[in-house]
Amino acid sequence: MAASSIIDLRKLLAERFPQEQLTAGDRLVTGLEIFDRELDGGLTKGAITELSSASPSAGSATIIAALLQRACRDRSFLALIDGRDSFDPSSIGESALRHLLWVRCRAASEALQAADLLLRDGNFPLVILDLVLNPVAELQKIPASNWYRLQRLVEPAPTAFLVFTPRSMISSAQWKLSLKNRWTLPQLDWEAAELQAALKIHLGRAQPNKWRSEPKLARAG
After folding, report:
1. Percent of the chain scored above 90 by pLDDT?
2. 3-class SS of residue 204
3. Half-sphere exposure (CA, 13 Å, Cβ side) for 153?
4. CB–CB of 179/60 below 8 Å?
5. Using CA atoms, how far apart are residues 177 and 37, in angstroms rounded to an integer?
6. Residues 77, 121, 13, CA angle at the centre, nearest 5°?
7. Domain ranges, ordered by start, for the chain
8. Dihedral-angle region of residue 35 (phi above 0 means left; psi in -120 to 50 means alpha; beta otherwise)
9. If DSSP codes are grouped into helix, strand and coil, which group holds residue 54?
């Protein structure tokens, strides 16, 4: 991301998204029944949750739309970092879009820079990084140290960090899930509630509070 773009994003954050009093608690309830059930009550704050889907039509757009509607109902804000500039706002109601910061990127490197800035800002209950449509070869070039840096940034924040990837690849993710859907053309005409009810999610890793927990002292003898 160019330096001028970063400056513009910082200015936008200061003007449009003034410092907000975020709610306490370790979980961000999403309102998606299967999601909240698999995640023991919602997205963990201060952690990376990776949701991978081999198929671009597996349901990530359905989840993003549901999370945005939830933010609208909660009168909070959601940041979406669009790694391939693929988000379609026409499918979202105007009232919900007022609660969205949409960061449009063309490459994974730009998207990670935006994530770095937004996690440092600490003013969003939920930051989503959508890399589903970025080429796997491009994502595999991201050093593991970059993900660990983002984990360290989100760890002290009252923010949940959800990353969509085409395959599991984030070693520092506290939660790893995978989407097992593959929407057919007829299903794309379903109502939002029907699509949400049809979501199939598999839990691959669950390490709740790993990064925030105090180190345990081993007892001698």
Report:
1. 58
2. strand
3. 20
4. yes
5. 12
6. 60
7. 38-205
8. alpha
9. coil
How many Å apart are CA 110 and CA 5, to the nearest integer? 10
> Nearest Cα to 159, choosing from 89, 215, 78, 90?
78
Torsion angle in degrees (nearest 10) through CA of 84, 88, 93, 96: 0
Give the C-alpha distances (Å, rounded to integers) separating 131 from 17, 56, 154, 221.
24, 10, 18, 49
Buried b (16+ CB within 10 A) or exposed e, 114-136: bbbbbbebbbbbbbbbbbbebee
Q: Which amino acid is at 208?
A: P
Sequence-distant (6+) residues with CB within 8 A of 198 are: 181, 187, 190
Of the candidates 127, 173, 123, the residue with the CA atom closest to the CA atom of residue 21: 123
CB atoms within 10 A of CB 9: 18
- Whole-number pLDDT of residue 1: 52
Which residues are CB-neighbours of 97 under 8 A, at least 6 positions away? 68, 89
pTM score of the predicted model:
0.82
CATH superfamily of 38-205: P-loop containing nucleotide triphosphate hydrolases (3.40.50.300)
Question: What is the rounded average pLDDT for all residues in the chain?
Answer: 84
- Residue 115: name the closest of 84, 141, 80, 89 by CA: 80
Place of tokens 């979202």: 92
